[in-house]
Amino acid sequence: MAGLEVRNNRYNIILRFGGHRFVRSLKTSNEDAALAKKLRVEENVALVESGRLTIPEGADVMTFLLSDGKLDKKPIIKSSLTLQQLFLDFWDAMPIDNLEPNTIDMMKIHQRHLERVLGKRLIAQSLSQGVLQNYITTRSKEKTNRGTFLSGNTIKKEIVTFNSVWRWGVRAGKVHGDFPNKELRYPKSKELPVFQTWDEIERQIKAGASEELWDALYLDMNQIQKILKYVKGHARLPFLHPMFAFAAYTGARRSELLRSRLADIDLSGGVITLHEKKRVKGKSSTRRVPICKPLGMVLKQWLKQHPGTPFTFCHPDPILYSHRRTRNEENPLTRDQASCHFRKVVEGSDWNVIKGWHCLRHSFISNCASNGIDQRMIDEWVGHTTESMRRRYRHLFPSSQKDAMKLLFSKPK
């Protein structure tokens, strides 16, 4: 029924069964071991022919007979996928324009911390709740550039990134099982401070509060006019003043400023269309903001000297003095250039405490709230979707709270 042959000093078994000829290396040069495996195959063939053993459909016949019916195909030993390789595979599989560039940048920062603390060669499948808890504990003892300990919010974002990559790995067949993030313990998270005026923040810092409070600054309408006047007189690049005004009067994010095109501006209809990428998951969406009179005047003046590209904010010559000079083929301005030139125009002035474009967005929202504009309308203009976003400026809405408190503790008539 079965025979043996020697090739390259190793035994092969040859079997004719079911009208087919099978040859399989026995991976041994020992004759007695080869004869024992041959006898096993012949016994299993007899069991099959007697109906006491059934070969599954599509099974590897020789593997089945050599394993006494325990295996129906050759065992596949997968390579040990490392943490680093899991992330590399994730980025390789990422479709173009699936995530915002700043989201990708932040996720890659998280990746670097994960690889640094856990080790690039960590076997991904060996990940456990204990490994993640050790990561959280280690990160909680590290300090930021400002000298403060890392917040629970920051560490949670890193774990969320890892979770996203893990879930992709499960769907792609790279790893299996649930992400082991149940019952992890984090440092206490700090609620972001509500938006406050310049005077409020300055008073608290003089009393010993952290300089981080400037992140919650919003400018009132008088200050908005002053900073726009300052930028107009000090900006080296002509697009900066209209870009500042656009952000201050629409609440547009930095990425939305860079995506803005001339076709999105309808001066006659008095409305601007902003292109979003985060509000609706998996979709690009838009929102419309009315053009106020001051912004309309700035845009009309800017359009007279506009260089002629499709983008609202651009410059005819290569823009220098940015940390990264890589040119974006789709947009003449990069995120780095926008941030760099924001800092340069306020550097050395009283406005130097403003951290970036987001302050102008905060200011637009806060001024809308302070002037009693309906929250639903503000949400429509700025694209807010979560309660935590609204909470940071809700205290600015005119209300009867103070009057109610006075009434509660007023002297009886």
Sheet with the most strands: spatial strand order: 1-2-3
C-alpha-based Rg, rounded: 33 Å
Q: Based on the structure given, which CATH architecture of the largest domain is correct?
A: Orthogonal Bundle
Contiguous runs where pLDDT drops below 50 for at least 5 residues: 322-330
Q: What name does the CATH topology of the largest domain carry? A: hpI Integrase, Chain A
Cα distance spanning the termini: 114 Å
H/E order of the elements? EEEHHHHHHHHHHEEEHHHHHH
Domain unit count:
3
The amount of beta strand, in percent, is: 5-15%
The major pleated sheet works out as: 3 strands, antiparallel
CATH class label of the largest domain: Mainly Alpha
Structural overview:
With 413 residues, the chain is mainly α. The protein folds into 3 domains: 2-66; 83-171; 198-394, Orthogonal Bundle (hpI Integrase, Chain A). It is built from 16 helices and 6 strands. The strands form 2 sheets. The chain has a 3-stranded antiparallel β-sheet with strand order 1-2-3, with helices on one face. Strands 4-5-6 form a 3-stranded antiparallel β-sheet. Helix 9 packs antiparallel against helix 11 (293-305) and helix 9 runs parallel beside helix 13 (358-370). The longest helix has 20 residues, at 152-171. The model is unreliable at 322-330 (pLDDT under 50).
